[in-house]
Amino acid sequence: MRTEKDSLGERQLPDDAYYGIQTLRAVENFPISGLRPHPTFTYTCALIKRAAALVNADLGCIPVPLAQGIEQAATEVMAGKFADQFVVDVYQAGAGTSHHMNINEVIANRALEILGQAKGDYQTLSPNDHVNYGQSTNDVIPTAIRLAALILLRDFLPQIEYLAEALYQRGEEFAGVVKSGRTHLQDAIPVRLGDSFQAWADIVLEHHHRLYAVQGELKALGLGGSACGTGLNTHPQFREQVIGVLGELTGFPLRPARNPMASMQSMAAFVQTSAALRNLAQDLTKLANDLRLLSSGPNTGLGEINLPAVQPGSSIMPNKYNPVIPEMLNMVCFQVMGNDTTILLAAQAGQLELNVMMPLIAHNLLQSLELMTTSLRTFRVRCVEGITANPLRCRYLAERSLALVTVLNPYLGYLKAAEVAQVSQISGRSLSEILIEKNYLNESKLAELLNLDVMSQMNFS
Fold first, then answer.
1. 307-314, long-range: CB within 8 Å, 24+ apart, which pairs?
2. Is the separation of the CB atoms in 218 and 273 below 8 Å?
3. Taking the CB of residue 253, how many other CB atoms lie within 10 A of it?
4. Does residue 460 carry a pLDDT above 80?
5. CB of 135 closer than 8 Å to CB of 52
6. Backbone angles phi, psi at 220, to 5 degrees
């Protein structure tokens, strides 16, 4: 065991623990959920510490040997070492001070080891005075969230494109398949199954454009603003230089926020990112539901498409295969929508110079990005890419749609066409039979008008 001291007194810590006394107090204070910080959030916090050490050494703010130890320790944390040392619950002290000190202490104690000193020797290298020099929770945490969101978006955005491409490919494959359209869950005019898939692809791709755009807001960093955005206790050149180093280390074109004070009060960039994810989630929910409807059956539902059978669907009914991948996507989308509501409420809950709900925003936003990335990949690979069509079933239902009378409107008028549809529905006789019997149209004209292949074509130049 070793003894550490803070402003509240002394505590004993296991000598093999890299975290320190402030982390220990946080663990004791917040035994709430068992949830730990997202690994990418830990990574970006360590990234900031690495960049800050480089810049502070260059500016003469901390001794070079200490800075080198901090940089090496932060780099090791970024590589995933000491992951078990980040132990503060997601639901913790406001603004993220507890998690921030967990980062500072782990890096400080590992740097002390690198320098040949004992853990807890904060007279030599301090979590607050050296690792955290020129920084505050209030500018580090929002910067870390922005960088983590950018990193996760870098992985996520291609998944949206891949899904759109898979839907386009199914659209090309099903280009000649005619099916009944449906509006209000009732029969509508014929459409092409391929056009339905291409419409879904365009919807997905539009969301890619929206999410790509939110990156611009995230690239403006308030780091260097210190406690309230005034830059207190920072070198005058620190802000520009540390953001430049972060840009070099990440490959992102980062820039200082126009007003550091504003950047630590407003969570608008996170709300905007989450809202774009929620918007995608609501359209993905409909897509998943549409696929479930079209594949319903196989004998008592629509049965117009087949989803890949990936696992038995019932513990009691043999040969039953459920649309489990779209069901999974539904659940993920509901979670993302709930996360968005939480982010919105947390973002408006700041007061004066700070939003203290940032740990909750970080948890929900990064969870949404990760869930979307993994679920879209799974949805594409294990569902969309294996979808097949049932052309005969599609045409069978399309030929029996009462909405086919719509094509007769220019010849009979709306009311007379409705009369024909009503007679067909009540009697069970075909539209053609009734139209010929009433001498409304002859057989050749009917064959021309009720040609499903022509009716279902896109009528645009």
1. 307/383, 307/386, 307/387, 308/382, 308/383, 308/386, 308/387, 310/382, 310/383
2. yes
3. 9
4. no
5. yes
6. -90, 115
Q: For 353-422, list the strands marked E by DSSP.
A: 388-389
Q: Is 81 exposed, middle or buried (0-12, 13-18, 19+ CB in 10 A)?
A: middle
| CATH domain 139-392 topology | Fumarase C; Chain A, domain 2 (1.20.200)
Q: Is the pLDDT of residue 298 over 80?
A: yes
Q: Which of 126, 226, 296, 314 is catalytic?
A: 314
* Catalytic residue flag (residue 314): yes
Tally of residues, the chain = 461
Q: What is the pLDDT of residues 202-260, one digit of tens each?
A: 999 999 999 999 999 999 999 999 999 999 999 999 999 999 999 999 999 999 999 99
- The reply to whether the predicted model has a pTM over 0.85 is yes
**Sign of the alpha-carbon dihedral angle for 124, 125, 129, 134:** positive
Confidence of residue 385 (pLDDT cuts 50, 70, 90): very high
Structure tokens at 186: 């009732």
Q: Tell me the C-alpha distance between 446 and 461, whole Å.
A: 25
Flag the least confident range among 207-216, 221-230, 331-340, 427-436.
427-436
pLDDT bucket at 290, cuts 50 / 70 / 90: very high
Q: Find out whether 449 and 442 touch, Cβ atoms under 8 Å.
A: no
Please give the class, per CATH, of domain 401-452: mainly alpha
Tell me the domain boundaries of the chain.
2-133, 139-392, 401-452
Helix (H, G, I), strand (E, B) or coil at 236: coil
User: From its phi and psi, is residue 120 left (phi > 0), alpha (psi between -120 and 50) or beta?
Assistant: left
Q: Which two tokens stand for residue 414?
A: 């709306």
For residues 135 and 125, is the Cβ–Cβ distance under 8 A? no
How confident is the model at residue 461, as a pLDDT? 57
Please report, as a single letter, which amino acid is at residue 94: G
- CATH of the domain spanning 2-133: 1.10.275.10
Mean pLDDT in the chain?
96
